[in-house]
Amino acid sequence: MKQLINILKKSISNLPFRNTYDSQKHTIISVGILYICVGKYDVFFKSFYKSFNKYFLTESNKTFFVFTDSRNLMEYFKNHTNIVFIRTEKKGWPYDSLLRNRYFKENFDKFNNTDFLFFCNANMICNREIYLDELGLGTRKKTFGVLQPYYFHKNAESFPIESQLICNAYFDKMEIPNIKHYFQGCFYGGNYTEFKHLVDTIHEWTEEDLKNNRIPIWHDESYLNRYFFKYPPYALHPGFAYPENVNLPFRKYNTMLQKSTQEGHTDLRS
Fold this sequence. Notes:
By secondary structure, the protein is of the alpha/beta class. Helix content is 26%, strand content 19%. The protein is built from 7 helices and 10 strands. The protein has helices at 2-12, 45-55, 71-76, 95-98, 100-106, 192-211, 219-230; strands spanning 30-37, 61-68, 83-87, 116-120, 124-126, 143-147, 183-191, 234-236, 242-243, 254-256. It has a 7-stranded mixed beta sheet, with helices on both faces. The protein has a 3-stranded mixed beta sheet with strand order 5-10-9. Helix 5 crosses helix 6 and helix 6 crosses helix 7 (219-230). It is globular. The two termini are 34 Å apart. The model is unreliable at 1-5 and 7-26 (pLDDT under 50).
């Protein structure tokens, strides 16, 4: 393991995404946090909400838009004024993830009073304070994405991009050498205008492919990587979506909880 860590440190030593900003605070803004937890995934929300409410963009006005079918959550948090529940039917794997941009597009009018929008996976928790500048959304980029922890140090030929199925997420052989990063689909965001463009674009791609019975290899993440290839975001290091029980050479900002440790985990995608 120590040898692996040394290899990883050496491989990232010259990459620009390695540096973050120390704790530069930001002016008060309104942000929307988009969160999907249908079916058994509702078990993650309490820890997610508690940690993001405490640490994420601490001086902002946060609203959590929770897409769920969980009556238990709606009852438990009914008096929390910064949570908006949006009833969402469970469709099963992979559609609960694949159709996220359909859900967002259908409800975008609810986000109109936000300056920035962020999507977070259900099994994420925030470990330390995160400020807007650290997300690259100050003067650098209008969107950000997080590098996948198992591919950040590899070349594009190793990325799990869609290179077989001809669909809207497809990369041809001439494009692959020009792919700089492979992004996780678990945490990304941007200002209101750019996030809306992302949602509108990926929604259009997804719906068109579904009509033709085409689903790319990694579903919504495949589309996200195609979008970020066309519209490069600010690239955050994998510490912003750090897998639980894995040792990586990055400061841990957010943890991706291991789903197998949750009670009833075998039913999460059923």
